[in-house]
Write a structure and sequence with these properties.
The chain is mainly alpha-helical and about 200 residues long. It has one domain. About 70% of the residues lie in helices and about 5% in strands. The protein has a two-stranded antiparallel ribbon with strand order 1-2. The two termini are about 35 Å apart.
Length: about 200
Amino acid sequence: MVVGWTLHACKHRTLRCQLEHFNPFRRPTVKFEERQKYRKQLMSVWLNSVSDDLDLITDWWFFLRMFNLHGIDLDGGMYARATFALLVLAGIGTLSYLLELYQTLYRYPDTIHWLAPLTILFEDVPQILLTLFLSKPFDSAETLEPLAAFNIATSVYSALIKVTGEVCVNYCYCCKFIPPVDEDSDVELGRSFVSEG
């Protein structure tokens, strides 16, 4: 998981650090706000990456589950046709995932402004509606397995937000991150981290 975050860290060298001490609860006394701001930028990339990975995995897992139950038949029943629509949405989700990776690697910190609304309108909302339709949550308790998987995925994501966000941004300043310095970045911020004693 966290594919985008890993690729971003490799390309932009955002995880270069220098060991300062071994006490994870000791906050730095020099330039704490600047260092905290930089960590928040790293956390933004991390959370987006986790969200994208979970979304892609659960989309394809749910499609495979429905394909095994109903198959795909455009001339068949309503559920078989809906499963085909699910396949199309999973394909759109994969395309938006690849665009998110491109954005994270080559356009950071800029964004493709139309990507988020397009993904929400043409992939996320239809996916949610089809998931509710295909899960038949009001027919019987036996068909709630995909919703249970979705619930687990969102719970994992929520836990990752709370734990990693709190720990990374506010604690564990044992290492000093050294932001990459190039012509497009804030050179003074980079210098302040490097020259910090």
